[in-house]
Structure formats: C-alpha cells, structure tokens
Design brief:
- Helix 1 (about 10-20) packs parallel to helix 5, helix 1 crosses helix 9 (about 360-370) and helix 2 (about 60-75) crosses helix 9.
- It is elongated and about 65 Å long.
- It contains nine helices and 20 strands.
- It has two domains: about 1-40 and about 145-220 and about 330-370, FAD/NAD(P)-binding domain (3-Layer(bba) Sandwich), CATH 3.50.50; about 85-140 and about 225-320, D-Amino Acid Oxidase, subunit A, domain 2 (D-Amino Acid Oxidase, Chain A, domain 2, 2-Layer Sandwich).
- The model has no long low-confidence stretch (mean pLDDT about 95).
- The strands form four sheets. Strands 1, 2, 9, 10, 11, 12, 19 and 20 form an eight-stranded mixed sheet that branches. Strands 13, 15, 16, 17 and 18 form a five-stranded antiparallel sheet that branches. The protein has a four-stranded mixed sheet with strand order 6-7-5-14.
- Strand 11 (about 180-185) and strand 12 form a beta hairpin.
- It has helices spanning about 10-20, 60-75, 95-110, 120-125, 145-160, 205-210, 215-220, 290-300, 360-370; strands at about 1-10, 25-30, 45, 80, 85-90, 115, 135, 140-145, 160-165, 170-175, 180-185, 190-200, 225-235, 245, 260, 270, 275, 310-320, 330-335, 345-350.
- Bound molecules: flavin-adenine dinucleotide.
C-alpha cells in the first residue's frame, strides 16, 4: 500500500483537512470504530468569535477565520447551527475591569462586532440573568458537531479518500521519499508508505510526534490532560435564557470559567471546569462532588437556579500544552523539515477553539504542505 498523504486521527480537525484536500491516495487512520469519538464529541459545540486569544497567535487568527468559514460551510451544506450570540457578564468591580480588558483584546485582534450592553438592553435581552455590566458577542453560535464531522467525512470520501477505522498507528519511520507507517488493526500489523504524514491525533498527538522521532521535552510538545465536567440544568428552565452566558474568565485560569451553554435542542448546561489530570486514562466520569461548586459559580449569574436543577451531564478532556502553572500557549501546527522530518506536519495542543477553527486549520496546513 502506498499513499500521498496520511492523516492520523479522524476527529473534527483530521476530517476537516481530509474534506478540503484529500485525494484518492489519502488515508485517514483512526484507532476507534468511528470518527469523532474523543474530544470532538465532548465539547460545548460553540462557534467562538475569538475574543480571548493573544493577538496574532494561531488560536486568534484561525478562530476568527474559522468562525466565518464555518458559518459559510454550515449554510452551504445544511449543517444545523444557530448564531445565537453570547453575553459575557460582570457582577463586581474586578469583573467589570475584566470586561474592559476583553473588549480591548477583542478590538486589538480584529473582532469588531463585540459591544457593551446597557442595563436596559441586558434586561430586555436576558431578563432572567444577573449582570451589572455585560458585553455582547453577536457572532458566537452553536452547531451540530456530529453533523459537521459526518459532512466532512462524506466530502473526503467523495474526493476518493480512504478512512480506515479500528487501526492504531504504532510506528512512523522516515524512509527515502516519505515514511513507513505501521498500523495495528483486527487483521493484524501491517505497514504502508506515505509521502506526507499529518498528525491530528488530538490527546495522543505528542505520542505520535514522538513515534516519528521528535524529542518532546526539547521541543516542548508534551501535552497535559485537563478535564472539563458539565452539569445539565433541569428542563423546567427551558427557554429562560436565549444566549450563551459566560462570566469573566479569571486571567490565570486554564479555561473560560463555568459558563452556560445551550445546545440546538435548547438543553441548558453549565461547564466545563478545568481539572488537570495526573494520568492519561480517558476517564470521562463526571465528578458529583463538584456539584456544589458548579451551583455556586453559576448562581451568581443565573439567579433562578436551585441545587436540585443540576444533574451530571458529560465531560471532555483538553489536550493542553499549557501546564497548571503556565501562561497562554498557542496551537503548534508545524512542518518538521527543520527537525530532519520533511513532510511531517504535527498539530499539537489543539484544544478550544479547535472545532471553530477546523476549516481555517485545514487551509493553514494545506499552505504548509504546498510550501
Ligand atoms: C471540554 C471541552 C470543550 C470544548 N469546547 C469547544 C467549543 O465550544 N468550541 C470549539 O471551537 N472548541 C471546543 N473545544 C475544543 C475542540 O473540541 C477540539 O479542539 C477539537 O475537537 C480537536 O479535534 P481533533 O480532531 O484535533 O482531536 P480529536 O477529536 O481528539 O481527534 C483525534 C483522533 O485521533 C485518533 N488517534 C489518536 N491516536 C491515534 C493513533 N495512534 N492511531 C490512530 N488514531 C489515533 C483518536 O482516536 C481521535 O479520534 C472543547 C474541548 C473540550 C475538551
């Protein structure tokens, strides 16, 4: 077997790339029985607008580009989505300062649609939330991430790509003209060659880079697993809130603060929190002991909540380059010729906003391949 391009990982990022530039000699290798069984199906399904990230970082640029590309794509291919908007709320002086910084950052990054809401507007738009001040991000939305991945996979297949499930990549060896890739599947171990290899293995992307010969410590490619739990809110409050509602994130936090999300069926949830894990087991059990903390955090801006309204929902695990005591870390999306590995492209640390940015990441990787 021989391929031009091998993409490792059929999450939303691997599939977005395959949908945009696969050909009949492209393999997408996925260890699970179907696409999107890890981080890509365990997230808030929010189309972010890019207010949080450092100017000119890949997270910022690819989120902003990805936001419009994704809306266009959803329109074109009838993927369920809603541009419902998001409100970021403050209820004390410190958070009001936080809103000012967010507004400045958004403007600096080129997100020009974000605006301050007057008290009257807050009451008219969201009578059931509590906020002394707020910002509105009108271009934040929600989408059906499964539908999106299904569409990406169908487009990739139309282009002739071969998605191989139940196949675990276990070896990547540099050879003349490309790489020898060894996979383990129910039919046994086998190898094939590929001119180019794209590592979109999410939580395992550092291990894949290491298999190919990258020194993880030297390159700072080691991932930290950071779990986020969600609790769902009782259906009796359905339609109480019309938009996503976020508190001001603590500057030193690894996440955006426990916030309110809505899915396309109108189900309200709060989460995700941030909890670094000590091992690499993918344990998605929601920690019930956190219910009180979630309740207290959310009650500050959702005054109608009662403790019995919360039920454990699901969790996701972020593949983070940022360790517990680190500052902002950008996505790593890198062609590795300078490490003596030409034609290998590593995508490491693709946490949020990876879903929003998926099509912009695909464009960026295509450029790296063509150079
Ligand atoms: C709690 C949480 C909330 C989030 N909310 C949002 C949000 O609202 N909006 C947003 O834009 N982003 C969000 N994100 C981020 C987004 O979910 C991710 O950026 C995105 O899903 C990453 O996709 P991926 O394809 O890189 O990784 P994954 O979905 O993890 O896919 C990687 C694939 O590689 C496969 N794989 C790994 N190793 C191997 C191997 N050796 N052989 C074969 N296959 C392999 C895995 O099985 C997996 O299917 C959130 C993330 C989390 C955890």
């Amino acid at each position: 077997m021989e391929s031009d391009i091998t993409i490792i990982g059929a999450g939303v990022v691997g599939l977005a790339m395959a949908s945009q530039f696969a050909n009949e000699n492209t393999f997408i290798i996925e260890k699970n029985t179907c696409f999107g069984m890890e981080t890509s199906s365990r997230n808030s399904e929010v189309i972010h607008s890019g207010v949080y990230y450092q100017k000119d970082s890949l997270k910022s640029v690819l989120c902003i580009q990805g936001n419009s590309l994704l809306y266009e794509f959803c329109e074109r291919y009838n993927i369920a989505h809603r541009r419902i908007g998001k409100i970021i709320v403050a209820n004390n002086e410190l958070d009001e300062k936080g809103l000012e910084s967010l507004m400045k950052n958004a403007t600096l990054c080129g997100v020009n649609d974000i605006r301050e809401l007057s008290k009257k507007e807050i009451c008219a738009m969201e009578p059931n939330i509590s906020a002394s001040s707020a910002l509105l991000s009108p271009n934040t939305g929600i989408l059906d991430s499964h539908g999106l991945m299904s569409c990406y996979a169908a487009l990739a297949k139309e282009k002739g790509a071969n998605i191989i499930y139940n196949a675990m990549v276990e070896g990547i060896e540099l050879i003349s003209g490309g790489y020898k890739i060894t996979i383990n599947s129910p039919s046994g171990r086998e190898s094939f060659t590929s001119q180019k290899v794209i590592n979109a293995a999410g939580l395992h992307s550092d291990e894949i880079a290491s298999l190919a010969g990258v020194d993880l410590d030297k390159e700072k490619y080691n991932l930290h697993y950071c779990k986020g739990d969600y609790f769902s809110i009782s259906g009796r409050h359905k339609n109480s809130v019309n938009r996503l509602v976020y508190p001001v994130a603590n500057k030193d936090s690894a996440g955006l603060g426990v916030h309110l999300t809505l899915d396309l069926a109108g189900q309200m949830r709060i989460g995700p929190d941030t909890a670094y894990l000590n091992d690499r087991r993918l344990d998605y059990t929601v920690n019930m002991a956190k219910k009180e903390m979630f309740f207290i955090s959310a009650k500050s801006f959702l005054p109608f909540l009662e403790p019995e309204d919360l039920e454990p929902a699901f969790s996701g695990i972020r593949p983070k380059l940022q360790g517990p005591n680190d500052g902002f870390c950008d996505f790593i999306i890198h062609e590795e010729s300078e490490k003596g590995l030409p034609g290998l492209i590593n995508l490491i640390g693709i946490e949020s906003p990876g879903l929003t940015a998926s099509l912009a990441i695909a464009k960026y990787v295509k450029k790296l391949m063509d150079n």
